[in-house]
Amino acid sequence: MNLDSMRRYSTDEIVDAVVIGTGAGGAPLMARLAAAGSRVVALEAGPNFDPQAFAFDETLADEIYWTDERLSGGSTPEAFGGNNSGTGVGGSTLHWGAFCPRADQRDLMIRTETGEGTDWPVNYDELLPFYERVEAFIGVSGPQSYLWDASRRYPLAPVPRNASAQIMAEACAGMGIRATDAPAAVVSRDFPQAGGAVRSACINCGYCHQGCRNGAKTSMDVTYLPLAVAHGAEIRPEARAHGFERDREGRITAVIYRQGGVDHKQRCAQVFLCAGSVETARLLLHTGLANGSGQVGRNYMGHVATQVWGTFDAETRPNKGYPSSLITEDMIRPKGADFAGGYLVQSLGVAPLTFANSVARGRKLWGKALGDYLANYNHVAGIGINGETLPCDANRLTLSDEADALGMGKAAIDFGYGPNETRLNAHATKLMVDLWTQAGARDIWVLDRVAHTIGTCRMGHDGDHAVVDAFGKSFEVPNLWVCDGSTFPSSLAANPALTIMALSLRSAEKVLSGA
């Protein structure tokens, strides 16, 4: 994004807020605080990209993925990098899929409902006005009548359905499952962005995960960050925070960061840690802050995200169109289920190199067998789930003995499905195979997958059991706030980004209220 005319602050000036991370957690609150007159400096570990450099080419997309080494273990180790971790001004929204369902209100109270998991200290009615503000501001496309919420209205008409969405819609109808156009943070028509330029309508190129070159897909660098900069916020790219200075009362007085190989200190009144579930917990563990509860790093969660693929006689061209253009929420609470919670089902699209990697990993095909299968690429279609993962104390992030260039221990993440996730996955896999059988697919196969990075700094009602309160404020450090997916007490079935943005605005309003 263009930062040429941005206001710049001295490191000796005590700014009102330092925001660490410019993704879905950091950008909305930056914009709100700056619009209210706060002096805001954002530190972004990654570079500032020109969207025109994004190409319809997977081999050129590595620069927007966080590829620093992370050690992944446990019984269900999760892939990082391009699977779920972004870097650059805009954070992981540069490469996210823009699929943005709201949380189901039952998921926020899952322990009250089922006796499993953990309730949130926030209810749906408290989140609703912030969901609506985010959807209106970023331009969410979706159906005018949402089957699972009669009161919901999306600002823009749906994006066109890709081939897998059309196949899934017919299969769902044949099995008596309701499905509709998915809520997508992709503008289906030219959209005047408040505080920024007009965003051109989606051209259905299908390369959402490689960076959107025309701004149709919501990423923070074309939505909240231009608004923040217009109101006087400063963004410092390639500035990696790695320490804090504190006063005798325990308040943070400065953030220590490295930029251009040199350490700097930005003095500040408040700090907002918005670096994502992995890097937020890693920084707190490295500095020893805000962990009197022992909860920093614990209850790491990744969504159950299994996919089912099949081959069809008709041409599908799976790289074309918005990938996840159809949704069903009928399985948020499936009848007769032997597990707590539930899952969403969505249509899928996929670019060829990503698909080839998935086939090699999921089907164990190599050489000629892999090439022969990929020759049918233009006839494959897939569906996938986003399933609830319950918090588990044993699923956690710790610091490895191996240090990075800043002297910080590398993140070591142990993650595994429990009995609930295993049963949910079995239910979902059978449903998806049945749907693709109904649709007439042949050579159906299953790709086991974990998605997103959630948890590690849970919110709660007290500092004995949580890291932050319901607004993201630390129970221990008076001027520290955490605003990202790390604060989720449970994973929810919904993809996390929309809820992260809503929580970010809610935190900003709490700060501005002075309460």
From TrEMBL:
<dbReference type="InterPro" id="IPR036188">
    <property type="entry name" value="FAD/NAD-bd_sf"/>
</dbReference>
<dbReference type="InterPro" id="IPR000172">
    <property type="entry name" value="GMC_OxRdtase_N"/>
</dbReference>
<dbReference type="Pfam" id="PF05199">
    <property type="entry name" value="GMC_oxred_C"/>
</dbReference>
<keyword id="KW-0560">Oxidoreductase</keyword>
<comment type="similarity">
    <text>Belongs to the GMC oxidoreductase family.</text>
</comment>
<feature type="domain" description="Glucose-methanol-choline oxidoreductase N-terminal">
    <location>
        <begin position="85"/>
        <end position="304"/>
    </location>
</feature>
<dbReference type="Pfam" id="PF00732">
    <property type="entry name" value="GMC_oxred_N"/>
</dbReference>
<keyword id="KW-0274">FAD</keyword>
<feature type="domain" description="Glucose-methanol-choline oxidoreductase C-terminal">
    <location>
        <begin position="393"/>
        <end position="503"/>
    </location>
</feature>
<protein>
    <submittedName>
        <fullName>2-methyl-1,2-propanediol dehydrogenase</fullName>
    </submittedName>
</protein>
<keyword id="KW-0285">Flavoprotein</keyword>
<dbReference type="InterPro" id="IPR007867">
    <property type="entry name" value="GMC_OxRtase_C"/>
</dbReference>
